Amino acid sequence: MENDCRNCAFKTKATSMLSDCSLDQLSANHLELRLKKGDSIIKQGTYSTNVIFLRTGLAKIHLAGPYNEQIVKMVNAPSYLGLPTTFGSKINQYSVTAVSDAEVCYIDLKVFETILDENKEFTREIIQEFCKNELESFRRCANRTQKLIRGNMADALLEFSDKIFKSNTFILPLSQAEFANLVDTSRESVSRVLSEFDKDGIIKINGKKIEILNKETLLLISQKG
Amino acid sequence: MENDCRNCAFKTKATSMLSDCSLDQLSANHLELRLKKGDSIIKQGTYSTNVIFLRTGLAKIHLAGPYNEQIVKMVNAPSYLGLPTTFGSKINQYSVTAVSDAEVCYIDLKVFETILDENKEFTREIIQEFCKNELESFRRCANRTQKLIRGNMADALLEFSDKIFKSNTFILPLSQAEFANLVDTSRESVSRVLSEFDKDGIIKINGKKIEILNKETLLLISQKG
DNA sequence: TACGCAATGTGATACATATCACAAAATAAT
DNA sequence: ATTATTTTGTGATATGTATCACATTGCGTA
Known about the structure:
homodimer; about 220 residues; alpha+beta; Jelly Rolls; Arc Repressor Mutant, subunit A; 4-stranded antiparallel beta sheet; elongated; DNA-binding
């Protein structure tokens, strides 16, 4: 059975809590897709009744601001996407786009709801996830708006290193223009600050490859604004 | 029975969905308090295992940013507070403070979890609430960081008028300094922009009382940055 | 290999707004 | 009532960064 969700169970605590019955239901009712970097997963303004499980890969959540497209969050697998849409207006209020190759499963909302109803542990996991996200968004709000560009850039680099790639060396999955939309600045400033950090020996840039040399200083910059 | 949660049921869809059994359990296991303007409901950094139900009144959610205290959100009753804490680390990651007189109920997390487990409709309501919050935070993120001060001020005024007080005339429940922390600007800029809006006939200021005279213009300012 | 388009580096200028510095007014305390 | 303390109004200056302009490099494609 190729599409057996049991094979997925090890990758996420949440899924591993599902009852056999629910796992079977899930296996029978989902569509799995392989996506390439740049492919759209969710498109703002379109209709949807699917919950999407990001099985592998990295994605950006972004939406139209008054002037620019704003990236509000980077998400890496495993993670559920699109819950606010499916539990809300059914019109996607934001876009999600793969920034690396990715595998996603489309699960019908009805099925997902049934599974929620029948798996308390799973429901609690999902709620906890929401809670974590809310806290994160609060912190992000306080940080982004108060810090100067260098601080926000430092933040973003640390997040990539610690949270997304879990390595001091990684390949920036965003163009500088995209990076600017994540950090709330201009493309040019991203370029400048990146050069500065390199010149100061805090990071080493090699094309799109970034190595973090001095995490302490980066943390300091992040904290001081 | 003074503390009967049934009396509360009409005020919130969520509560009205609870089973009789759960309502009894809730009635027997909660502490109700009357608070005055300025009283702390949740304090960042302290330990807590209570979910808090804001029964009446208006509160601000705020936390320490790198430089200032940042208000991330205004919340009016009826609403649950502190879920991210109780479902997470048990240490409050943000503060909540009453900005008007308020009534709150402290519900033990265990009791709340039991009620969640036993009331699917209620659980779904809570999840939907989380979804709404997430969308709101995304939008806020895109707006706050891209708009100029006038735009954010217009936003905030419209939110007070439409969402919080549901009236064109209201008394600002925040000092200008607090308002600045909500809108991500300086106390002086709040003063200046408020005067501008008044001079331009968009709003009428009378001490702490604000009347919105020209909502269309305000909306325009909000959209144009 | 050569071409064209997209992504990046970097200076000069413009501008929104934070900050500083007080004055005035309003609130609270004695 | 009088003083003290907090809140608000408003000008002048400083500053971080967006914007514009163009050079340069990298990259996919014919």
